[in-house]
Amino acid sequence: MRYQVSNCDLKGDRAYFFSHDIFPLAFLEVKAEKTGLQYTLLDSVASTDYTIPPLRVLKLDVEIAKTNKIADFKDPIGTIHVNQDQKEIQIDSGDEAEKLIQLVKIVKDLDPDILVTFGGDSHLFPYLTERATINNVIDTFTLSRDGTPFSSKTPSGKTFFSYGRTFYRAGPIRLYGRIHIDQSNTFILSEAGLDGLIEIARTCRVPLHTAARNSIGSSMSSLQFYQAIKDDVLIPRNKSIPETFKSAFELLVGDRGGFVYEPRVGAHDFVGEVDFSSMYPSIMANNNISAETVLCKCCPDSPIRIPELNYHICTKRTGIVPKTLRFVVDKRLYYKKMKKEASDPHLREVYDNRQIALKWILVTCFGYLGYKNAKFGTVDGHIGVCAFGREALLKASHTAEEYGFEVVHGIVDSLWLKKPGGCLEDYENICKVITEQSGIPISFEGRYKWIVFLPSKTHPRVGVLNRYYGVMEVGKIKIRGLEIRRRDTPNFIFSAQTEMINTLATANNTAELHTKIPSALDIVRRYRQKLLNDEVPIEDLIVTKRMSKKPEKYHQHVSQVIAAEQLIKEGAEVHAGNSVKFLFTHSKDKRHERRVKAAELIEKGAEPDVQKYLMLLYSSTANLLSFEGYTAESLYNLVREQKQKSLLGF
């Protein structure tokens, strides 16, 4: 007989939380009984005004007295830096064994709840453990609250692929009785701070140590698992509901993604932006979309139908996915409301961090619905959400046009609208009408003094969906698709483009915007001259690129591969998903090893490839001003002509 196994892959800590109906940092009473600990919960996951105990946070960093260009485990400890409550302690006296023992004593005396490092998982703690072993103090070298020593075996890391990008996550190093957070190995902390991390841990019932390192999808899955346990629903070992067979026509009709309006290229005055709040999660919650509800066997005559495909959705029970999402959607909307109403700046920041954390759960839930390994996922439901979204955006745009608005741009869950002679109240009113019509909250984000929709680099008359920038009437600058938003942009280019945008932002309308362009070009000339005069620090020219695969798997010697090979040659480890930093030195040299230099290997006197960085400067400026027909080549010629005129004038 063949058996199907369920509830088999719940982690022990999650299973404990679920079975006792508790969560991290919950306020509760604990009694020690003969049968075990008995909990009386005096808190709720739904609470939005919970109090966090005064957690003590300690930051730890170590300077390594490296003997080669790349530090390794053979190098001795230099200086240990400990920081808590703005008080810094340096451990730089004695031999290595004494330094390690001093660190143990300081941590014990300061007794932190959270210990923060940068690279603690990947390098710092494995390095300290190795040095403690070499100096025969491994048995006494412990930073855990209960005295548990470090393991001599370092957990292995893993490379994974998510949303079109490759990531590498080092194996987690645990401290017992304290929470270790590696700032280089966490997503949610960088996005939403400690307040956001705590919100994720509480909401999804995941320990802080795990929540800091988990992908948002894993945390969200924990929330779904809790709901399933609470509803007495078995959690399948593998996804068990396959995609319904579709004809070629059904695939063509149904699998189309979100609806978009091509932007009108150029600069526009007084355009308002309206956004559906958590559109896809709201659709999933409102329409009961989950693996067990789409095309259920009990409601073939259900009135709830997926547009275009006409698939029915269950009306007799609420699915696991919509139950979890409704809770998160409502909680996030409350935090956004409180952020606007709060007068205390600190409280506004707390509410903002919490809503950002919940936003990432909602962003992820749609992708997980169609993920092949999602326990409660469904491809048919994933397609259905897109269909509901297309219908909602199309109806919203038609309603706006009926009320005298003109659609300038639209993408999935946002519309940019313009109404000649319209006032802010008109935008607020149309949002109320659309919200009542669709059942999905839509909010007025604000009106722009001016906004620029940028053209394609290859087709100047065609707009690009996610490349625009503008200044709202409240002074907020919104930017999408420019170098300033990219992680691999060197500080030199970032600073130049930021200064140009701030100069353009002083314009109050498109007429003034055009008069500001010469000032922006003056900034380009100034940055160009700084580069030619060797006044730009090398660190401002460093480029960062992520390795999408192992260096040896690349067929072409692109810049990041060359830098990675240089690091490997010096004894460093480079994994797929790691970021590599480098300087352009001879970008057109046929000998690929000379084109770039890994940042860690740069020595005093290193010379950057000035022409390469000049072209990056011109290219970033051309992206900004492409709506006026500027290209990198035209800017190069313009700057050169200006230089010649200056020389002739002299």
Architecture overview:
- The protein has about 650 residues and is of the alpha+beta class.
- About 40% of the residues lie in helices and about 20% in strands.
- Among the domains are: about 55-230, Nucleotidyltransferase, domain 5, CATH 3.30.420; about 250-320 and about 375-480, B family DNA polymerase, palm domain (Palm domain of DNA polymerase, Alpha-Beta Complex), CATH 3.90.1600.10; about 540-605, Ribonuclease H-like motif (3-Layer(aba) Sandwich).
- The strands form 5 sheets. Strands 10, 11, 12, 13, 14, 15, 16 and 17 form an 8-stranded antiparallel sheet that branches. The chain has a 5-stranded mixed sheet with strand order 5-4-3-6-9.
- A hairpin with a 2-residue loop joins strand 1 and strand 2 (about 35-40).
- Helix 9 (about 320-340) packs antiparallel against helix 10 (about 345-370).
- The protein is globular, with a radius of gyration of 28 Å.
- Mean pLDDT is about 90; it is low at about 645-650.
Alpha-beta content class: alpha+beta
Radius of gyration: 28 Å
| Contiguous uncertain segments of 5+ residues | 646-650
The coarse silhouette is globular
Gross CATH architecture of one domain: Alpha-Beta Complex
CATH superfamily caption of one domain: B family DNA polymerase, palm domain
How would you sum up the major sheet? Answer: 8 strands, antiparallel
CATH class of one domain: Alpha Beta
Question: Hey, roughly how much beta strand do the residues contain?
Answer: 15-25%
pLDDT averaged residue by residue:
88
- How many helix segments? 17
Strand count: 20
Gap between N and C termini, in Å? 95 Å
CATH topology heading of one domain? Palm domain of DNA polymerase
| Helical coverage, percent range | 40-55%
